[in-house]
Amino acid sequence: MRPGRERRLRARDAESDKRGLLVDSEPETAGGGGQAKFTFVTGVIAREKVPAFERILWRACRGNVFLRQADIEHPLDDPVTGEQVHKVVFILFFQGDQLRTRVRKICEGFRATLYQCPETSGEREQMTVAVSNRIRDLKSVLHTTEQHSLTQLQEVALDIDSWQTKVRKMKAIYHAMNMFNLDVTQRCLIAECWCPVKDIPEVQAALARGTERSGATVPSILNRMSTSDQPPTFFRTNKFTSGFQAIVDAYGIATYQEVSPVPYTIITFPFLFAVMFGDAGHGLLMAVFAGLLILFEKRLANTDVGGEMFSTIFNGRYIVFFMGLFSIYTGMIYNDVFSKSLNLFGSSWDPGYPYGFGNEGEPPQVYNIEDCLGNEGVEIGDGEDQMSEFPTAAMEYHTPYPFGLDPVWQVSENKLVFTNSYKMKMSVILGVAQMFFGVILSTFNHVHAKSYISLAVEFVPQVLFLLCIFGWLVFLMVAKWVTFYANSSTAPSLLITLINMFLEFTRLPSDYVVEGRDAGENEYSVFGPSVQLATLQAIIQKGLVIAAVSSIPVMLLVKPFYLKFQHKKRANSDEEARQTHIAEQVGGEGGEVIHTGAQNGKVGEKTEGHGEGEDFEFGEVFIHQAIHTIEYCLGTISNTASYLRLWALSLAHAELSEVLWMMVLQMGVSMGAQQPAIGVAALFFLFAFWAVLTVGILLIMEGLSAFLHALRLHWVEFQSKFYIGAGYKFVPFSLDKKAMEGET
Amino acid sequence: MAGGSTAGNILFTICGPKCSLCCLVVSTWGVIMLGLLGVFFKLEAVALFEDIETGLHKCTDKDHDCIGSLNNVEYFAEDDVTRAYSNAAYSCWGAAALYLFFLGLSGTFVGINYWRSKVSQH
């Protein structure tokens, strides 16, 4: 725009509102003749486009167009993009129609919106009033609409969760129905599905209900079909057993109709946990925590507090509760409550020789060694095996502490010597018991599969192998506990005994009786310090070794050859059956050929898993059996040793508990013993610290550790004796909350 | 919040729902356990002897009525032992009383937090 014109126009700004747009102060002159008539357009354009707009106008119209513009202060909402844009209002003056069309085209090109503007100021004022009225009306309409939509949305918001659930349910139903087959000929949908046999009447009742409610004329039919596919595994669980079922399923879903370890796991798992956890105080805390979870289970099931960790513990609340209860029990047996022992019945410890607890009111007795032995010491045992001499007065019999460990052990220095020995032996006993139980459970599997050959040739040698070696070890442990050795150096080491069972197999019984040997150099048996007993033990052990070792080839060889023999027999009888069948067909109707022999063979083959139908690879079967045998035999030894973790973890727990008490609480107590005032404050803070550490280290860390190891003992050592776990889970269609949340 | 008092707001910021629940649990445990521990100290349980042992000093036969009378054995005066047990019992009970007060405090915190969560739901 040319600067001159701009300046001239600006001078007239003050009065320009009152002017007409095209009224000229000078009258029309006749000389002008054909006075040019100015027309104008007004419009609004985006601010960014103004310079280009001006330039194009100038060039296209050759400077014959006059532009005046003014900024609009408030940004406007662009109806298309919804953003706020700054716009500029302009007015264009020009002459002639051609310029008008040109100008219009340029305005369209720049997407300027053109508006009509009346010439006279009166009309302009009217228009302003009209437009502002319209704006006000539109604003109120907009506002009302917004309010209305807000209320609508708020109402919908209350319902939207249930709508979403409904949609998900419908989706799930249609998704399930998509799996049906369409039977074109009969215009019906066919679904092949698995269903528990017990529930068939219920399913039929449900189908009948559905037919009735939907008013269909054709009823739905349930037809039972036979198939050779492996069915899914389904266990009915309630809220209590579902936790235990979950931890067994985590290892492997049971094969169809295999014996399930879950009912036994309900007891053995918390028990093994408790053997490793073994503190009544911690068990009480755990039981109380789980008890609260159980008490408020209805309320807690609906809330979603705490995230995945909490929901895992919540789902296992019955397991944790049992773990806590059993830990209270083992804590009472180990006599360990937050690392202190309870003296409920009075200790049975009597220092005996040379200190004795005298009678009430008398000073304590002191025995003089010389007085007791003298020249004629009291002798124990037969004349031939003389033990070192002890005064009988010092070996008075007291009834042992009735339940659990005597509380005097806690204040003694040699506590660990005793508890280590005790816990190690107990771990082996528990381990052998659990493994033996596992082997017994395998009989259920064999009987169900009607594989009596397995019963005879796998189960019996397995039991023999386990019991002859480790059952004997358990027996020796109990015998050693029960036998009194006046001279404890004559008590033989059980490990050495077990090893010598094999290594010194060739030792003759006569080696045990050597004339002229000192009492301390003869062989002693676990049952007592006599040579006869030692000989007896040696003979028994030889027999056990022979039994155990001879069970290995039985386990290894008999079954593959028997299966091979069976297969041959069946192949021959198949031939015969086929021939008779053909003969019957030729012979005419009325004859029924019974193929029982072939069928029996088939059943036996199928359930054993190898040699189905006509395939029977002897090599494969033999290798399978060899692996099974080696795994079992080596596993017996390693698994028994593996159960020693019961000892290790309980030792660790007891030590941690004791250290925590000594390092934390004892400081407060000893301060309190001297100065109660300081002790109160010290105990207040130290107890909180001790409580937090107990929960964090002993309950959570040790609890998780014991849980894991107890679980491992179940999965590996126990279940490997009988459990295959090759099934798949029965997952029925369900509209409940958890199944719905899985769908998106 | 229009309904809540400023005191409630201040207390809420000191201790949220989880903190106050934790404090409640610890103080309940403290009251019960320290109370029982005090009782066992008063009963002079042998199992707790090594806790007060560090607070005692050994005696010789001449000064006091000592327990035990053989050489090379540590022994402590009987009234020393009794006094130490009693002191320990009193400090345990004192700490239990403090925890009882703390229990009341955390109980009110839990109540306030519960009330706040109830109100904010509406």
What's the topology here?
The complex is a heterodimer of chains A (744) and B (122).
Chain A: H1 3-11, H2 13-16, E1 38-46, H3 50-60, E2 66-71, E3 76-77, E4 84-85, E5 87-95, H4 97-109, E6 113-115, H5 121-177, E7 181-183, E8 188-190, H6 200-214, H7 241-249, H8 262-277, H9 280-295, H10 297-302, H11 307-315, H12 317-334, E9 355-356, E10 365-366, H13 369-373, H14 415-448, H15 452-482, H16 494-503, H17 531-587, H18 596-608, H19 618-642, H20 645-674, H21 676-718, H22 737-742
Antiparallel strand pairs in A: 1-5, 1-6, 2-5, 3-4, 7-8, 9-10
Chain B: H1 6-14, H2 17-42, H3 49-53, H4 78-121
GO molecular function, one term (chain B): RNA endonuclease activity
Family (chain B): Belongs to the RNase K family.
Main location (chain B): membrane
Q: Give average pLDDT of chain B, whole number.
A: 79
Envelope shape of chain B: rod-shaped
Strand composition percent of chain A: 5-15%
The helical percent of chain A reads 55-70%
Radius of gyration of chain B: 23 Å
The strand line-up of the biggest sheet of chain A is 2-5-1-6
Q: CA-to-CA gap between the ends of chain A? A: 63 Å
Structural class of chain A: mainly alpha
Category from helices, strands and their pairing of chain B: mainly alpha
**Main sheet makeup of chain B:** none
Total strands of chain B: 0
Oligomer state equals heterodimer
- End-to-end C-alpha gap of chain B: 11 Å
Mean pLDDT of chain A: 83
General description of the model:
Chain B: The chain crosses the membrane at residues 21-41, 93-115. Chain B: It is found in: Membrane. Chain B: GO terms for molecular function: RNA endonuclease activity. Chain B: Keywords: Membrane, Transmembrane, Transmembrane helix. Chain B: This is Ribonuclease kappa-B. The complex is a heterodimer of chains A (744) and B (122). Chain A has 744 residues and is mostly helical. Chain A has helices spanning 3-11, 13-16, 50-60, 97-109, 121-177, 200-214, 241-249, 262-277, 280-295, 297-302, 307-315, 317-334, 369-373, 415-448, 452-482, 494-503, 531-587, 596-608, 618-642, 645-674, 676-718, 737-742; strands at residues 38-46, 66-71, 76-77, 84-85, 87-95, 113-115, 181-183, 188-190, 355-356, 365-366. In chain A, the strands form four sheets. In chain A, strands 2-5-1-6 form a four-stranded antiparallel β-sheet, with helices on one face. Chain A has a two-stranded antiparallel sheet with strand order 3-4. A two-stranded antiparallel ribbon of chain A has the order 7-8. In chain A, helix 14 (415-448) runs antiparallel to helix 19. Chain A is elongated and about 155 Å long. Residues 25-34, 369-394 and 587-612 of chain A have low confidence and may be disordered. Chain B is mainly alpha-helical. Chain B has helices spanning 6-14, 17-42, 49-53, 78-121. In chain B, helix 2 runs antiparallel to helix 4 (78-121). Classes of the chains: A mainly alpha (744), B mainly alpha (122). Chain A binds chain B through residues 285, 340-343, 366, 407, 410-411, 665-666, 668-676, 679-680, 682-684, 687-688, 691-692, and chain B through 26, 29-30, 33-34, 41, 45-56, 70, 84-85, 87-88, 90-92, 94-95, 98-99.
